[in-house]
Amino acid sequence: METDAAAWEALRLSLWVACWATVLAVPLALWVAWLLARCDFWGKSALNALVHLPLVLPPVVTGYLLLVVFGRSGPVGAVLERFGLGLAFHWTGAVLAAIIMGFPLMVRAMRLAIEAVDPKLENAAATLGAPPLAVFAQVTLPLITPGILAGAVMGFAKAMGEFGATITFVANIPGQTQTLPSAIWTALQIPGGESQAVFMVLMACAVALGAVVLSEALARRVARKIAGT
Amino acid sequence: MTLDVAISHRFDSFALDVAFTAGPGITALFGRSGAGKTSVINAVAGLLRPQGGRIALDNEVLCDGTRFVPPHKRGLGYVFQDARLFPHRNVAENLQFGAQFTHRPAKIDFDDVVDLLGLGTLLARQPATLSGGEKQRVALGRALLSQPRMLLMDEPLASLDGPRKQDILPYLERLRDGPLGVPILYVSHALDEVARLADTLVLLQDGQVRSQGPLFDVMADPAAVPLLGVREAGAVIEAEVMAHADDGLSTLQISSGTLELPGVQAAIGSRVRLRVLAQDVILSLDRPDGLSSVNVLPVKITGIHAGDGPGAAIALQAGSDRLLARITARAVREMRLDAGVHCYAILKATTVAPGNIGR
To answer: What CATH architecture is A12-171?
Structure first.
């Protein structure tokens, strides 16, 4: 059936966008979370507010702001366009929207995890001769793995479900920017499209559930290793 | 290897201003809670950057007004009060952590440390499953395997109960007396540990060094009594175990005679440290007769230090050993005690070191 093919295409695109958004956002979110948790610098509260802004702004507003900045005639968008990296009405734009919208959730989870690591352990590692990068890689990072996983799953789920900012920024082009939520919304606009919408709703539920179960299992494994049981 | 410390640092509520030197062996930094001990050791480790002064290991400056060597480049092992093992690594992985970063020639290898500290059965365990004493032994092994030029220990026994403490102390004595020769800076507020372990004693009070020198000298100094606490003060002397009698008493030889003491575990011929509490020493002008205590030594008074209260600390010379007695100022007057007076000390001594002294 042709409508089913469209649903699978929307799912494929959503997964594609969500994976890219997660992979790109995790290192950046980790860095920002570490800055907010462990460093004192001028403008820290401004950075904190900026990171959290997409959480409190209406998604449509975020999408509009993205359009203004990254649209074809926007200050950043125009430059990207010249290098053939235009984001507007392109799946890469959907990735950017997903990153921005999921970022506060990721940073929050990771920041909490970093703050839960006793700095005394990091000091102890330093006295054993470990330079700062090794302390982070061998002590901090393994201990915050559950937090990183939690943040990544949050970000992934947010990217899968992101609708308002995405549709405002990159519209709703099948095969290009029509993610699962956009496709569900479109199906509901068509008379008789409800069965297809339900099919896609089930898809969305299955993906979300799978992601949560997977991350829980991974986090449990890490916790078990630390508890030594 | 000599550590020179002369630093000052102002905290919100108190000021630290200390200068001391720590040579080979164990240097104990003794003082009550809040005296600034941990701040000093943290400054040596590089975890605290003092506002003023200088810290140097031999000729290498670790910090002064312009230089500050970060902790990971100092080559100092640190055993914390709260073990601080890495929870995600098992015991073997914790022990091996430091080896990847050190370029110094290995003085001690993995198997030596496992042997020395009795860690063989723990290697595969996770830190969360270890007892407090086991954690501290692993922490000590982990610090040793980073091949430190000096070992810093911040109340490593404070979080352990009595029996666990007794488990660890012999390991520390082995470390001190063994061929490793790693100098140790040992922070403690427990005088029994200090008396048993230290070669050099630095007394800290309110962020300042009040007294420092070889352990035997500082412990026998009547002026140090108020710093150590009147109930805790007392000289430390060395003795050789001569015989164990069937009734549980052992005969120990000191420079001015013999002592009969209960509860001596050490083998015949070994040297032990005795801690003679000043309040357990009684003075008599005549040789006492018919006393229940058999430990009577002829002594000469070398100094009297009257405190603010009714007590006075009396420094005594017994052969080549020094003792300390704490009696009332009234007794000093009535007995006409003064420097140079010969009298007899009657004492109850408690052993502080069942193990060998070895040097």
So the answer is: Orthogonal Bundle (1.10)
